[in-house]
Amino acid sequence: MAQMTMIQAITDAMRVELKNDENVLVFGEDVGQNGGVFRATEGLQDEFGEDRVFDTPLAESGIGGLAIGLAMEGFRPVPEIQFFGFVFEVMDSISGQMARLRYRSGGHYNAPITVRAPFGGGVHTPELHADSLEGLIAQQPGVKVVIPSTPYEAKGLLISAIRDNDPVVFLEHMKLYRSFRGEVPEDAYTVEIGKADVKREGSDVTLLAYGAMVHSSLKAAEELEKDGISAEVIDLRTVSPVDYETILESVKKTNRVVFVQEAQRQAGIAGQVISEVQERAILHLEAPILRVTAPDTVYAFSDAEEVWLPDHKDIVERVNEVINF
């Protein structure tokens, strides 16, 4: 085991798969000699050459189109969208083309494409860089959406994504890139896409979260424990498809749920998951499912984002509401 930050684990996953399969290609804006804006691809061009790790023009639509063409020719593209706030420029490639390729061609073509992109607040980026837009892609059938919260999961999930024969959007929260280290196997391994993880066992309330909000939820659970409230924390890890089996098993035990997401209340996936849980487990619920989210405004400028973003205090407040309902 090695101690790695999330960004190191992500780099290692790409290195493993570039070695494992000569059809894996990594490309995007400044990912070559510069190693990407966060150095996620640092050293990969030197190791594998310019034909397999290369820069593209500053054109997300072109990056998406290139990925589709390469996939149809048998490659496994790993394109980077420099920030996920720029996804609108490549939305047709993802939702209109990648998601439909296997169905449209009757299985003749696959789209084994892993679209990597950083996102998320708390690091004071400029406008259009931090937005949580995962809900836009999660609404599109045919695309998997993965959001790791630890270095171990980042490497295992990214390897799984690259090996998947269908398109995966792999989102990396910027605040988690270098905020802590975790144990990561140095060899290749996979973490199953579509499987949630119970990060903390509890009996009084279920906290559902993903990305950086998993850590906020764990912090809230520690605070709640001081008041005698036992919170179970579930890391969804994959927001499309969602692992409802794990969620429902927890709900039947705790009978109360709070959903936590960084995205605005009307965005993200909270509304969809809450609807599904209430349809499937209404008789097990002793209170309405509440949510902790950012407010329904455009993303705040960096000076105000600490006020705008949800935190562990907001989670504690909502849990107390659902407990005392």
End-to-end distance, in Å? 45 Å
H-E string: EHEHEHEHHEHEHEEEEHEEHEHEHH
Task: Please describe the biggest sheet, giving its number of strands, its sense, and whether it closes into a barrel.
Answer: 5 strands, mixed
- In the sheet with the most strands, the strands line up as 9-11-10-13-14
Instruction: Determine the structural class based on helices, strands and strand pairing.
Output: alpha/beta
Count helical runs. Answer: 12
Low-confidence sequence ranges:
none
Task: Describe this structure as you would to a colleague.
This protein is α/β, with parallel strands linked by helices and 325 residues long. Helices cover 35% and strands 20% of the residues. It contains 12 helices and 14 strands. The chain has helices at residues 6-20, 44-48, 60-72, 91-97, 101-104, 134-138, 151-163, 213-226, 244-254, 270-281, 305-308, 312-323, and strands at 2-4, 24-28, 53-55, 76-80, 114-119, 144-146, 168-173, 182-184, 197-200, 205-209, 231-235, 238-240, 257-264, 290-294. The strands form 4 sheets. Strands 9-11-10-13-14 form a 5-stranded mixed beta sheet, with helices on both faces. It has a 4-stranded mixed beta sheet with strand order 5-7-6-12. Helix 10 (270-281) links the parallel strand 13 and strand 14. Helix 1 runs parallel beside helix 7 and helix 9 packs across helix 10 (270-281). The mean pLDDT is 97.
